[in-house]
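Notes to self after the call with IL:
- keep both proteins in one doc
- input above output, always
- annotate only the second one for now

Protein 1:
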Amino acid sequence: MMKCLVFQPNNCAIEVNIRNKAFGQECLNKVCDLIDIIEINFFGLQYYRNGQPYWLILRKRIDQQINARMKMIRLYLKVKFYVLPHHIQQNSTKHQFYLNICQYLETKVLKIDSEKRTKLIALIAQIEFGDLDEESYDLKILYSKWLSILFHSEQTKRLTSNHRSLMNNNNHKYRPYCDTLDIDESNTINIRNKSKTMTAASHDGDKNCDFMQRIVFWHQRYQGYSSHFAKNLFLKEALEINDLGVDYFSVTSNKKNLLVGIGPRGITINHSSNHNNDNIKLITYNKLKEIHHHRSSHLLNYNYIITINYNDETNLITEQKFRIYSEKDYYQFFRLINERRAFYSLPMIDQQTIVSNRFNSNFTFLNDLMQTLSSPTSLLNLTSSSSNKSTTLMNKKASIFDVDKTLKQFYDDVRRYIYHFNRQFDNVMLKNAMLVRQDSLLFHHSNQQQQHYTNSDITDNNKSLCKICLDYQIGIAFIPCGHTSCEQCCLNIKNDTCPFCKCEMKSKQKIFL
């Protein structure tokens, strides 16, 4: 057996035991089962090699991707396909989205306006602590923590390594910028600062108090929102960030260094190194027409080139070539384009062609790629070429994509599964209720019968008692009237007269019951 330690974004680890030759999908299924998630297709597993994160290929064995000699394999549960909250049907899935976005906000330098940052901080406070409490010290610590993260990111040291940021996250100490929060009757917010560092009336201190006022203002606006509703608003606000869920690659095109991102909206091409929005070009997935990947070698130098053809603004087909320096980045770049394009934009994916080729060793590279995303409505043509004609079988299997359903197909399947699960649950509950009712009816009926038998026995015993003393059984009958009494009462009768009818008794007869 092989042990895997899977870290969640909140630094909670899940230990799973899998087979030595297990595929990545088996590990992901076990992790999602432990955290009660059925919407598995949104998630993926990442591992780190030389400080660089890579997505684990779920349709490939884990020991072929990670060093199997390690005593315990470290993986990280990440959201691979970000979607809007109305596409998510499980609260546990939304919670994982929330944790991933919070980790993204902590580790990345964001290019968003200050108003959206204050909204995000207020929503986080509403999710974690509920309505605003000006006397809560923990709430002020949370304000200060996210103020230092979202408004002072350039001055704060950011660790690029994911696991290092998670390990050191709990060691940071945050001091509240403002010690007291006063809210008067007119709903105006007055902030009094008692710390010595803020009494200098510096410009940064004034800006911090201004940001704090906006955060408290938005937190007041969200008063009464439940944690679930606030989490939906948080996801909706956070998904408007352009860089969320984007994997970046350093490539070369026309002897220029570019930064290419593959995300939910499409392919972003940044022509500058400072992330200026004016130099970013977005190619949506529905504009893609063809993807060619080319691998050639000359002596010890390898060239990895990916060419995309897309429709530009004038509806003309434009060709863009990307040269990638690493083979691992080359395959991940090619896989992510096709997987995310298929998940977000294609109407349907044929699942049988994907699964049938999983263990087939005779397919060619071209046929594998064509069949992986084969769809009657697909507009994307995938081709491959190699100058040396010596693509290995491992490289062929490395291009088998992990996506087997589009967003629409996956959403419908989850809805259908939850519907049938609820129906089965309702049927089970109805059967249990009927069984309980039958048991109660049987118990009530048995009690009535037992009570009836008990009452009949009591009446029979009362009939055999003497009507004079009601203590002893009758044993003497008076003749000719036929009235009865016990032997003790019969001895006390005088004048041989029946005590009931006053008739003269001619004789007394002993009887046996």
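Protein 2 (the one to annotate):
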Amino acid sequence: MQTENGEDNGERHKVKSSQQRFLVICELVETEQKYIEQLQFISQNFQGPLQRSGLMPVEEIDTIFKHLNFIYTVNSALYTELNSQVKAEEDHSENCIGALLKNHLKLMLPAYRDYCSSNMVSLLTKIDGNQEFGAELEEIAAQQKSYQTFKMGALRPMQRITKYPLLIDKILEFTPAEHSDQGDCKEALECSKALCEEINKIFDQACVEYEPFKKLFWLQKHVTLPHKQIDQTIDFNSETRFLGPRTLLHSGILFSNSKMLFAFLFNDFFLLATAKKESCFPGMKRDQIPETINLFDHAQTRNSRCTLYKKPFVFDDLNIIELDEMEAANSPNSFKIEVTSLKRQILLRANSYSKWVGWLEQLSKAKEDYNKAKCTFERVAEFHPKVPEQPPVAQLSLINLEAFQLYTRNYAMNAYCKVAIGKDWSSAHQQLTTKTFRRVMDFRKINTPASRNKSILSSISKLASGWTQAGDFTDLNNPHRIFWETDALIDIVDNEDMLFIRCYDDSPFAPHQFLGEASISIGSFIEERKMSSGVITKGVELHLPLDLPSAYFLKKLNIKPCLLVKFEVKTVNPIVSDEETDEDKETEKGIEIEVTKETEKIEEADES
């Protein structure tokens, strides 16, 4: 007989699985929305310039875009129905999307087949060979304030179809056997795999020079990333933080002591994975392993599965060190990588001198290119304040910020805030960025008692609606809490200005995730200052754009991201009120004269 505690645990596990399933469905809907927006951007901004380029006959370019627009139509229909289906269900645990996915995946095949069979790859090759026109296309994207180049957009359809099996498989993982959607989801998974296989065959025939794209898909399938070793999600075939699409630069076999490692060098990080030597090269010694080997095509490695050896090394945290003469004599064809944050060095050995030279050159160049791109990114993102036309009338002392119920897909959050003051973000006259606060935040893994969650949510509802002194709610052990010390002085120029706060999750492997924003009228700070002196705490709700499925997901689960803003208003230039009398002004003037006379007497005495 089950104990009451056992029943509670079972029910809690069921609820958690239901939430996880709904989360993955929302991820599917949200990424589908971004995908069709990207397709629309490519069609609207690049068709005309390509027609005028003369790289291909206009008819062929029109055919490529016709097939691209057909994909846009098909996927828009999928997104519309998915979004409606998710929002229609009152109980998110009953969401049934398997049949819908199955039907739409079948409709996708002719659209994607025609697109991949067109001269799209040939067009990309010609653009690569014409640097001047390639730069022109990049300039078009820059003018639209987008990182989405034509090359990135043209390869999106092939990237997208590889995501469907992964997402549907995750949905199935959290779908109980007795769920009414179980059978349809299994069929949808088979349809997505069949679609991938068919399109990959066509793409393989059409595409030789885009071999790295296929390698990224192989990595997603064959490299396991345990959450105990890395708390950030990595999608190999996706966007980097500021380098555009992820690119595989170099790969091969390295050794650390006697351990054989599969090494993968990307444009934004370096990854080492372990594979069983016995399963790849049974009976071979280390020096018998072929020097030149393609891990993705070699008969003994292409079907192997490997596991992360160490957390991926981001170039911000990585140095490449050549050995001195004595070390080189003892360990030929070897080099060290230094992980700055861990103050640790790892000795790696290549199979031959030529491989050793190749790895050193590739690693050094990748780090150099990464640093250049980072400098450019930071320069573009640099804040340029708008100089106010009048001096500040007061100062806002922003003491600290506290956030509750922030949501991210990662297992740990590296959260930071941007704060600005002005009429809007573009015309802000002052901006600051908080330090990054790290917290294991994925609420799916939080073992907080249900009663405490209920209490927290109740407190948040009150907090988000106005003023509070927080009390026990700011418990340091609260897993929903993130705290930033700011201690910043912000000039108040106009009482009609707004204080803007945006929260982000800083991931080293992807563009920063937007977590929510709030805007507060400076007038409300001034009014509160009149009623209460000293330090004041104000609660505000954080908002996500309503068209984001994650915003709907948070609402459905009664999760309310919000902020506590702790501040003090300090007067700079006291403003004379209308009620101040002429007598008060004369008195103040008399005091100033007396002070001046006393000062003159003191100066005369000092001189004598």
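Annotation: The first helix runs from residue 4 to 53. The CA atoms of residues 386 and 427 lie 6 Å apart.
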